[in-house]
Amino acid sequence: MTDEITRVLSRLRVGAPVRAAALDMFPLLLDGDEQPLEPPYAVLRDAMAAGTGHVSEVSAQGVVPSLRFRNEDSRPVLLIDGEELEGCKQNRILNLSILAPARRDIEIPVSCVEMGRWHSKSSHFRSSGRTMYAGLRASKMSRVSASLAREGSRHSDQGEIWESISSKSRRMGSQSRTQAMSGLFEERERQIEHITAAFSPQPRQVGAVFALRGKLAGLEMFDAPQTMQKYLRGIVEGYALEALDTEDDEFGFGIGREGHPAGGKVAVTLEDVRELLARIASSHAERFPAVGLGEDLRIEANGVVGAALVDAGRVVHLCAFARARS
Question: N or C: less crowded end of the chain, CB within 10 Å?
Answer without folding.
Answer: C
